[in-house]
Structures are given as C-alpha cells and as structure tokens.
Amino acid sequence: MEYGLKIKNGKIYCNDIEQDMSSVADSCRVDARVVKSAVENIERDPHLCRIFSKLKSTLHLGLVAPELGFGEIVVEPFDAKDSGIIYWVAETMWRNGISIRQAIGDDPDFTYNAKLYVITDSPIPPNVIPEIKKSEKIKGVTIY
Q: N or C terminus: which one in the chain shows less Cβ crowding within 10 Å?
C-alpha cells in the first residue's frame, strides 16, 4: 500500500504501468512465488480486492524540492492522530505569506512516528519554525 501498487486481473501496476512480479519480488527480497501468491490472495478476498484495485502511486515533491526551488518542512507531531495539525501549519504559512504547493502526511496507522511533509513554492524562512512549534501538538519541525 505504501507504494500505491494496484492489483488488477492477476497483475501488479504502478498507476497504469504493469510491474514485473520478479522485480517486485527482488525489491521485497522474496521469491516471485510469494508475490504471485499474495496477488492471488488479494484477488480472492473481495474486501482486499476493492482496496488494492483502487490504489495509485503519488508524487512526493519533497525529495526534489531544492532542485525545483521549492521549500520543504517536515513536521513531527506528538500524536499524528490529533486534529488540527495540518490546519495549524497551513495557517502559519498563510500568515507568513508562504504558498503551500503540496502537503503529504504519513498515515499513523501504517507508519511509526508519522510525519507531515509540507512543500512550499519558495524556501521557508527560519523564523517560521518557532511559530509552528507554538502548537502543543508539534514535537519538532525541520526545514530542508
């Protein structure tokens, strides 16, 4: 699920690009038969099939933000399930005249120590960090 790999008609796709089962197996460091069995098990289970047939890979600009002239901050909350974290960060950016291009949050049910990644149209001034950290819900902020 993390990579957005879709299962459809016994095949694995990254968006609309079919993935070779052997390559997926190599990446997972398992035998290709394990991958084939996993695909078959997913397709046999109607609930899993409905989920895995709709997944989509998503572009994460954070890894290339500096090369594109963008800014990125990584926000580490105390509890990623708390409400208002994205609101607080977005409002702080708005107050400082910083436009958000993309925001991606790890799912706290699937990721230990889930974080929020915020990509901005321009590099982020360091004075924004203390403002974001004023929230009692935010443990740490890093600018890239």
A: N
> Has this prediction a pTM greater than 0.70?
yes
HSE of 102, CA atoms in CB hemisphere, 13 A:
16
Can you state the angle between helices 32-44 and 21-28, rounded to 10 degrees?
110
Token output for 59: 């572009």
Cα 128 from Cα 32, distance rounded (Å): 48
**Partners of 5 in the β-ladder:** 14
Could you report the per-residue pLDDT of 75-124, keeping only the tens digit for each? Answer: 999 999 999 999 999 999 999 999 999 999 999 998 899 999 999 999 99
Distance CA 41, CA 34 (A): 10
- Residue found by looking up tokens 């400082």 in the block: 96
